[in-house]
Amino acid sequence: MRLCHETIQLEQVLPVPPARAFAAYLNKADREIWSAPSATAAVIIDNADVRTGGSEATRCGGKNDLRFRTEVRYHRVEANAYLCFSETLYEGDAVLTAALITFDFRAEGDEQTCLILTDQVTSFVGPEALTGHRQGFAASLQNFRNFLNI
User: Fold this and answer.
1) Measuring CA to CA, which residue among 52, 7, 57, 26 is closest to residue 144?
2) Where is 145: in which H helix or E strand?
3) 40-73 confidence digits (pLDDT tens)
4) DSSP per position, 52-101
5) pTM for the whole thing?
């Protein structure tokens, strides 16, 4: 399989200030709700240490088929401002993708946040995995907006 890579940048205006949006990222239970990209998908965060030097492990996939897992290393976390982390996606022992991801929380006035997500992703299994990153993050960010709008 040929190596594929892409830089994906997505933006979503969130209806809350950066501190509230950042808190919803830090809250494991909240993130499990909004990060699943569809009603048939699930994300289970097995452990989360969201701080500079921290790590995280998740399981994800269909609600009845959590065949994928991620390993995350947080390289830099600035409260209410940004998170930068690397993420490796596995199916079993096979590495599917490796990515450097940044969530940049920027204040827009007093009551909104412009969230800019940059995903520099490499796929070892073809272009479909890049499409999965793009579509998955786009859906998750829309879910994040909807979650915060409640």
Assistant:
1) 26
2) helix 127-148
3) 999 999 999 999 999 999 999 999 999 999 999 9
4) TT-EEEEEEEETTEEEEEEEEEEEEEETTTEEEEEEEEEETTEEEEEEEE
5) 0.95
